[in-house]
Amino acid sequence: MTDWGKLSDEIFESYFKQTEIYVSRVLASGDNHMDCLLAYYQEAWKVPKRFKGNSAAMGFVPEFLIFETVKQHLKKKYKSKFNIKDRTKTSGGLTETAYFVDEPEARHLLVQGLRIGANEYGFPPTDCQHDVAYMVKDGIWKAKAIIEVKGYYESASLKGDIEKLENAENKYSKTDDCAFAFVGFIRSSEVSRPAKAVIRPFVAKKNHYFISPGEVNPEIGNSSLENLLERL
C-alpha cells in the first residue's frame, strides 16, 4: 500500500533541498549573489502560471531565499549546524513554528518571518515579525542583523519596511555593528525616483543597507548582498 504521507513529505522536502543546493551554488559561484537569486525569483513568478494560471502564494520565495543564504553563510563561517527549537506547537503536539539555533553552544539564533515573544530559551523579544532576524549571544542575546525583504515594492511599501527597521534600531538590545537592511528584488537600474528618495536618507545612517540586484549605484547608495554577509 502506498504511504501517501511519506510520498507527500518527499515531494515537499525535495523542493526545499533543491533550493538549498541552488543557494549553495550561488555562494560558491563568485557571481553577483542578488543577480542569481533574482533569476530564481523570476522563475518562481513564471512557472506556477503554467500549472495553476497564477503565481499567488509564491510571496514567501524572496524571504526564504535571503533566509537560506544567511543561514548557509553563517554555517560555513562558524562551522556550526542550525537545529530547530519549537516556538509553538499544535494541539496535537506537532511543531507549528520554530526558531533556528546553532548547536552545541547555542550562540546564534535565526528567525524567519516570526515575532520573538516570551520564550523558555531566553531569546530577546522583538516588537514585530521581521523577514529575517539574526541574534548572537555574547554574554547576553543581542540583535546582529534585522532584514526586511520584498520581491516587488513601491515607495509606500518600502517606506513601511524602513520604518520597521528604524523602530528596531531604536528599541532592540543590539551591538554597535548591528546591520539593518532592506533587500529588494528590483534591479538597481529600475528603482523608481520616489523609491530612491526614500532610500537615500536611510542608507546615509551607520550600518544601514539597501540591497538590490544589479550594479552598485551611488545615486541610490545600494550595497551588494556580499557586503552585508561579510558583516555577519
Descriptive account of the structure:
With 232 residues, this protein is of the alpha/beta class. The chain has one domain (4-230): Restriction Endonuclease (3-Layer(aba) Sandwich), CATH 3.40.91. It is 43% helix and 24% strand. The protein is built from six helices and seven strands, in the order H-H-H-E-E-E-E-E-H-E-H-E-H. It has a seven-stranded mixed beta sheet, with helices on both faces.
Brief overview:
The protein has 232 residues and is an alpha/beta fold.
Q: What characteristics describe this protein?
A:
232 residues; alpha/beta; Restriction Endonuclease; seven-stranded mixed beta sheet; 6 helices; 7 strands; 43% helix; 24% strand
CATH architecture: 3-Layer(aba) Sandwich
CATH-assigned fold name: Restriction Endonuclease
- Work out the helix count: 6
Helix content: 40-55%
Calculate Rg over CA atoms: 18 Å
Specify the overall morphology: globular
Domain module tally: 1
Derived structural class: alpha/beta
| Strand order within the widest beta sheet | 1-2-3-4-5-6-7
End-to-end separation in angstroms reads 49 Å
How many strand elements?
Answer: 7
The residue ranges in which pLDDT falls below 50 over 5 or more consecutive positions are: none
Mean pLDDT: 94
CATH class: Alpha Beta
Characterize the main sheet.
7 strands, mixed
Topology (elements, then pairings):
Blueprint (H helix, E strand, L loop, with lengths): L3 H26 L3 H20 L7 H19 L2 E9 L5 E9 L4 E4 L20 E7 L1 E11 L4 H17 L2 E11 L8 H11 L4 E4 L13 H6 L2
Parallel strand pairs: 5-6, 6-7
Antiparallel strand pairs: 1-2, 2-3, 3-4, 4-5
Helix pairs in contact: 1-3, 4-5
